[in-house]
């Protein structure tokens, strides 16, 4: 095993968060050395990995894009190729190409308080070679999904089905669905994207859901944003659209939280207007939970509803009894025949890519840690991570976290510190799940993740305006953030 040179910061993941982190480091700390490790052979993260038909954002790109780089495309709810192009432009424009190490997967990282550094064990995914890197800081920017394996429930009789069964996370390039009967199992963002995208060429697409989701039509193009860019120019127009859309997102979320019954009625009214007359809206589009207990599914220009109106797509709400040779048998006794089955049943949550962390030889047990400002872990020195909002655009929070991280590095440099360790002043502080969200993918993994506390700075905020104050305006110092210099280096 070879040991390479020491780095100031080791960033894990070359997706939207890791690329953002790299840009902030380049801009704010040009003298610092850093590398971005990417296990795959390409940048872009989610937007390069997923190849299923119709893949697109479910947030507008004026808030999902970076604050420092205007979104110039007319599409606001954009498809994956446009987002991928935007991310790779960011890489090139900011000179990040030389910093990204492809086919490098972080396996484990060990912190030494004596030397005030991490020693990371890295695997070359293309050759199997192992190497070691050392770094002052570890910044995990890979989100919380497991990228090598999606979630598929155990289905009785699955082996009996004669056609292909595909998970969207592993979409075959040669899958031809033209003229075929397609059954999409699921009701989340992936399912409502796949159904209209495939219905244009398939014989028919059926979305089979166990429980309905809230689905809302949104314009694919943001006329106000496009007008603002035309009148004010790219920079100022983008800034205006970003502020306006942040306010809109926050307003919708607050309305749903404060007036769930009214929000449910409004969404139902919108759905009814989009669907054929007499359609059983309450059976297929009326979830048993309140709006924003789980994320709302956005459908650009109402494409899902249009496919239903055309008769090229349909929704069935039922439970699967067993797979059959020709499709699936439902608990109601109805059989849905299909040539292709797509299991859009979700993703697996995995904290920090499954990396094994140790601090001075002791393994870090994530459920025993508490998140500090939603970006560091109690008892784990010089470790930061990027997790965005569940109720708004992911990148809004990631940008603030990167800013705060860079400010913290500057403060430590100015005062001669090399070690930063968050520790709760009250060890008996009550805690709750880090991701306090009802979505199934979160609930399946909630006991494997860090916790959050019941007070600042141990609360994981889901409020952009609160985070602007905490992460951008407030001081980086805090009584519960212990800064020091390693004795061996004094």
TrEMBL record:
Pfam families: FMO-like (PF00743), NAD_binding_8 (PF13450). The keyword ATP-binding does not apply. Its cofactor is FAD. It comes from the Bacteria. Keywords: FAD, Flavoprotein, Monooxygenase, Oxidoreductase. Belongs to the FAD-binding monooxygenase family. This is Cation diffusion facilitator CzcD-associated flavoprotein CzcO. It comes from Amycolatopsis magusensis. The lineage of its organism: Bacteria, Bacillati, Actinomycetota, Actinomycetes, Pseudonocardiales.
């Amino acid at each position: 095993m070879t040991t390479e040179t020491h780095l100031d910061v080791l960033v894990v993941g070359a997706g939207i968060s890791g690329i953002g982190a790299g840009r902030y480091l380049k801009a704010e700390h040009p003298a610092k050395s850093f590398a971005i490790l990417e296990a795959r052979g390409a940048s872009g993260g989610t937007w390069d990995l997923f190849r299923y038909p119709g893949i697109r954002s479910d947030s507008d790109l004026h808030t999902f894009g970076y604050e420092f780089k205007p979104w110039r495309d007319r599409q606001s709810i954009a498809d994956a190729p446009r987002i991928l192009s935007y991310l790779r432009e960011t890489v090139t424009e900011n000179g990040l190409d030389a910093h990204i190490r492809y086919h490098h997967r972080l396996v484990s990282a060990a912190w030494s308080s004596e030397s005030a550094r991490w020693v990371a064990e890295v695997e070359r995914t293309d050759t199997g070679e192992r190497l070691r890197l050392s770094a002052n800081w570890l910044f995990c920017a890979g989100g919380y999904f497991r990228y090598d394996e999606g979630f598929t429930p155990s289905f009785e009789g699955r082996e009996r089905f004669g056609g292909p069964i595909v998970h969207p996370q592993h979409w075959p390039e040669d899958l031809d669905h033209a003229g075929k009967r397609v059954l999409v199992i699921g009701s989340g963002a992936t399912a409502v994207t796949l159904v209209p995208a495939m219905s244009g060429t398939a014989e028919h697409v059926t979305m089979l859901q166990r429980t309905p989701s809230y689905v809302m039509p949104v314009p694919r193009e943001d006329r106000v944003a496009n007008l603002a860019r035309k009148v004010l120019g790219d920079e100022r127009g983008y800034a205006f659209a970003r502020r306006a859309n942040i306010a809109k997102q926050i307003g919708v979320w607050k309305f749903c939280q404060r007036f769930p019954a009214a929000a449910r009625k409004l969404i139902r009214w919108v759905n009814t207007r989009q669907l054929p007359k007499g359609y059983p809206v309450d059976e297929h589009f009326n979830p048993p939970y309140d709006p924003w207990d789980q994320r709302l599914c956005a459908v650009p220009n109402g494409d899902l509803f249009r496919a239903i109106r055309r008769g090229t797509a349909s929704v069935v709400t039922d439970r699967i009894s067993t797979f059959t040779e020709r499709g699936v048998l439902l608990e109601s006794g109805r059989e849905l025949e299909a040539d292709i089955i797509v299991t859009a049943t979700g993703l697996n949550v995995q904290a920090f890519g499954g990396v094994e962390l140790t601090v001075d030889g002791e393994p870090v047990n994530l459920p025993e840690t508490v998140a500090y400002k939603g970006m560091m872990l109690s008892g784990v020195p010089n470790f930061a991570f990027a997790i965005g909002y569940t109720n708004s655009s992911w990148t809004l929070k990631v940008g603030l976290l990167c800013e705060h991280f860079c400010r913290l590095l500057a403060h430590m440099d100015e005062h001669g510190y090399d070690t930063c360790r968050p520790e709760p002043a009250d060890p008996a502080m009550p805690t709750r799940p880090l991701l306090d969200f009802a979505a199934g993918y979160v609930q399946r993994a909630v006991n494997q993740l860090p916790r959050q506390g019941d007070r600042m700075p141990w609360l994981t905020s889901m409020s952009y305006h609160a985070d602007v104050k905490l992460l951008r305006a407030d001081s980086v110092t805090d009584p519960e953030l212990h800064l020091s210099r390693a004795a061996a280096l004094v």
